[in-house]
Design a protein that fits this description.
single chain; nine-stranded mixed sheet; about 30% helix
Length: about 850
């Protein structure tokens, strides 16, 4: 590999590791095979490519033409008949032989350009054959003068320079149906491995392969370790004198269709792992020899140590000062030429030039800490394989990043000197869950598990405040986003690389998907709290046409959607899966949306928790007057979903997606206006019912009066002189009088509000099937509620008259009023429960008031001596 410890890719935001990228581009990896680094490119002049016969140890392999069915399967217009990789470990030579067929014009476009890569600092490239076969004709295209030598820095965007070269030839006159055959040998191995061999070969690809063959000639005096990762055959082993021959031969290898969001460690394409290192102890000894400080007394080191020393500083403060110096003052730049792909640069040199890659910065950091009296050890990790590292053969090439383990003041820290945008105390610095590491120190025999830590967990809290305008008004939005831990580190990097204007534009466009007429109300404000590793960004907007008139012209509609949550629960493009699914972990997102409404809406409280194999979403909607609050909280629970749980996970994501968002509808008064006529019949019904009810009450009263006419009134004094003292308004009757006087006023107040429900717009919204709040129970319920209120009002007025006339029938009518009012309240509560979720507190208060009123006043009317003495006429 061209770059071993140059840059560990952080997968916590979905980035691909170098191993995953190589696997996805498996054909390119097979064809190129080997590419290493080179320290003296500027001094070398290569004008052409060496050609010649293949080494004598090579076993040439012929291949049959692919079947028609296979030819049709090739994506990109190419089908590989043969991919043959042969290695002679004794001679440090690697031979590659490839035969492919061009099956479409797309294959002509891509397959006619051949590329051979090597590192001139320790490798030689020899091309043996380039032939095009067309029918029975064979055309030799091995023309050295037509090669072009280029320096193709594939890792340049990651600030890594490896110095490898590529010999490129553009074949002429290539047609559909042609078979292209070519072979080459690369001689030489990276001297940093000190003569030990390690390599890996992919046994499949994204295209079908007629025959995939790996042949290895191995000296019998040396021990070889091999393992197939994924499904693959056992080798055929033969003895050839002082060499042993291993052959892995596969036929009719189908093309692999890659699915999105595959974990980096999953062997979607099986591969062969080869290593001469017998144990992790061997690798640790090799790594210890790489990370050696050779110039401890260099003036640059001594000068920097003096600056970092601080009297009275705690061990944690000392570690933090050294870490921040290496992170911020030494820029990241990898010069991965030749042996430098493994061996770090001397710390004094790194200090002098002020740049280095991860292994350079790690060794410098360790050197400074040792000079300051702290224990520090380079730790090799795999950003792609992570916890599955122990399943691989011991091999230096499995590592692609270097961090540092520090022991200071009785505490242990795992730190990454390349993370430029980190802030806060070292105890809270974020480190991805790399799982396992190999410490580069004497005596190390096994991989070390990196303790799981919640320090610097990525968390973003977003607060949205909507001040919603009228149907034609302007809505204002204020957004405050607080990034914590790794999220703050990511945001600092984004602000530095992209700039505030680009970040602001990105947010504006995110909201514009929901609100096309949104405009910024001012520049974004950024507050960076380095002590707490927090970045807070405030941005504000104005939104015109916030309310959207629906096609039926009867309703305005608006929506609120938590974009910050949706991003992390989006379903993958591949839902019918045969491979596990990666999940961004750890991850916590909170979105709180506060909505200030311009009028009252029928809003219900809501709480829901959705938990699946890989994540949990909590949703809570609450309403207080004209303020609605929407709370969303998402948290990842694991870093991948195993294949048996994929269907359940996808179903959970769908449920989570369905729980996001909130919508309001507002009846278009202009559209309903003119549909009148409804109020007339409601008014007529109310008048007729009131007249009939009044007549009925008077009829019953007169009939009751006639029946009591034959019974003479009882004198107030009677036989009990004390009873005469209780006659008249007094005692608890005062409370009865107050209640009777207030009751009609109270009912008139309720009626005035109920009448609003019978306005054309509201009645249409509730009772029409096109209405925004339609329910078939609304019409009967509202009419019955209106009639019930008229009944209570009529009975209250009649009871009030009877009370002040001191009629003997008053206690009975008053008890009847209480009983009817209780039945009406209970029926109303039950009816409202049919069309919307009731407020438990409000229901309890209404029922309690009725129950207390009846339990107090009914016995009073039946037993009170004052009542008996007063109502006698």
């Amino acid at each position: 590999m061209s770059e071993r410890y140059g840059s560990g890719v952080d997968r916590s935001r979905g980035g691909k590791s170098s191993f995953q990228q190589a696997r996805v581009e498996s054909i390119a990896a097979i064809l190129v095979l080997l590419s290493f680094a080179w320290p003296a490119l500027g001094q070398m002049r290569i004008s052409t490519v060496r050609t010649g016969g293949a080494p004598a140890w090579v076993d040439w392999r012929a291949a049959e033409p692919p079947a028609a069915s296979k030819s049709e399967q090739g994506p990109g217009g190419e089908v590989f008949t043969l991919i043959d990789s042969q290695v002679n470990a004794e001679k440090e030579e690697a031979f590659v032989h490839i035969i492919k067929e061009i099956t479409s014009n797309a294959g002509v476009q891509s397959g006619a350009n051949l590329q051979f890569s090597w590192d001139p600092s320790y490798q030689e490239l020899t091309v043996h054959r380039i032939v095009i076969r067309r029918g029975g004709e064979e055309m030799d295209r091995l023309e050295p003068d037509k090669f072009r030598i280029i320096q193709q820095e594939s890792d340049l965007s990651r600030q890594i320079y490896n110095g490898s070269l590529s010999a490129v030839i553009f074949l002429e006159d290539v047609r559909v149906g042609d078979r292209i055959e070519y072979a080459f040998t690369v001689r030489g191995a990276n001297p940093s491995l000190k003569g030990r061999y390690s390599d890996r070969f992919f046994l499949g690809a994204t295209v079908p392969i007629g025959e995939r063959r790996v042949r290895l000639l191995w000296p019998t005096r040396r021990q070889l370790h091999f393992r197939v990762q994924g499904a693959g055959p056992a080798p055929e082993v033969r003895s050839r004198g002082a060499l042993k021959e291993y052959i892995w031969d596969l036929h009719d290898v189908p093309g692999v269709v890659f699915e999105d969001q595959i974990p980096s460690w999953f062997p979607a394409v099986p591969w062969l792992d080869l290593s001469e290192f017998g144990s992790w102890s061997d690798v640790a000894r090799w790594a210890t020899g790489m990370f050696v400080i050779t110039n401890l007394d260099a003036p640059e080191l001594r000068q920097e140590l003096t600056k970092l020393q601080s009297p009275g500083a705690t061990p944690q403060d000392t570690v933090q000062r050294a870490l921040e110096f290496v992170q911020n003052e030494i820029r990241y730049l990898g010069i991965e030429f030749g042996p430098n792909s493994y061996k770090p640069t001397d710390p004094a040199t790194v200090l002098h030039r002020r740049f280095g890659d991860c292994k350079d910065k790690a060794l410098l950091f360790c050197t400074l800490l040792r000079g300051l009296g702290c224990e520090a050890t380079p730790a090799l990790v795999s950003t792609g394989m992570r916890q599955t590292l122990s399943e691989l053969l011991p091999d230096p090439e499995v590592f692609d990043h270097v961090i540092v383990r520090v022991v200071a003041g009785g505490a242990t820290y795992w730190l990454d000197p390349t993370r430029t945008y980190q802030r806060g105390p070292v105890s809270q610095r974020y480190l991805p869950d790399y799982g396992l590491a190999l410490l580069a120190r004497d005596g190390e025999t096994v991989l070390t598990r990196i303790p799981a830590s919640s320090a610097g967990t990525p968390e973003t809290v977003t607060s949205e405040i909507f001040d919603v305008g009228g149907q034609q008004g302007v809505t204002h939005l204020w957004v405050t986003s607080t990034f914590n831990g790794f999220d703050s580190e990511w945001m600092r990097a984004a602000l530095t690389v992209q700039g505030r204007e680009q970040i602001a534009k990105s947010w504006l466009n995110d909201y514009a998907h929901q609100y096309p007429s949104i405009t910024p109300a001012g520049p974004i404000e950024v507050e960076d709290s380095s002590d707490h590793d927090t970045v807070t960004i405030v941005h504000s907007y104005s939104i015109r046409d916030f309310w959207t008139l629906l096609p039926d012209k009867e309703r305005y509609h608006c929506e609120f959607y938590p974009q910050g949550i949706h991003t992390w629960i989006a379903r993958p493009s591949t839902t019918v899966r045969s491979m596990p699914m990666e999940v961004a972990y750890p991850r916590r997102r909170l979105v709180r949306t506060t909505i200030h409404l311009p009028r009252d809406f029928a809003v219900s409280n809501f709480t829901n928790t959705i938990r699946g194999p890989a994540g949990e979403l909590r949703v809570k909607h609450s309403c207080n007057g004209r303020t609605v609050t929407l709370n969303y909280e998402y948290q990842a629970l694991t870093n991948f979903v195993a294949l048996p749980l994929t269907a359940k996970h996808l179903a959970t994501l769908e449920r989570m997606e369905g729980a996001l968002g909130y919508a309001l509808n507002w009846q278009n008064a202009q559209g309903i206006r003119g549909q009148g006529g409804l109020n007339g019949w409601v008014f007529s019904l109310a008048v007729l019912y009131t007249t009939a009810l009044s007549a009925g009450v008077l009829f019953l009263y007169r009939r009751q009066r006639r029946s009591l006419a034959s019974v003479p009134p009882v004198p107030a004094s009677g036989d009990d002189p004390e009873l005469s003292k209780l006659t008249g308004l007094g005692g608890w009757l005062i409370l009865v009088a107050i209640n009777l006087i207030l009751s009609p006023l109270r009912m008139l107040y309720y009626l005035s509000h109920s009448v609003k429900s019978f306005s054309p717009a509201t009645w249409h919204a509730l009772t029409s099937q096109k209405g925004m709040s339609y329910n078939p129970a609304w019409g009967p319920l509202l009419v019955l509620e209106l009639l019930g209120q008229i009944t209570v009002l009529t009975l209250s007025i009649f009871a009030l008259v009877l009370f002040f006339q001191k009629r003997r029938v008053f206690p009975g009518w008053f008890i009847g009023l209480l009983v009817f009012n209780g039945i009406f309240v209970l029926a109303d509560v039950l009816g409202v429960g049919l069309v919307k979720a009731p407020d438990p507190g409000k229901v309890f208060r209404h029922v309690a008031q009725v129950a207390v009123g009846c339990s107090v006043w009914i016995p009073y009317m039946l037993r009170s001596r004052r009542v008996k003495a007063t109502f006698v006429s």
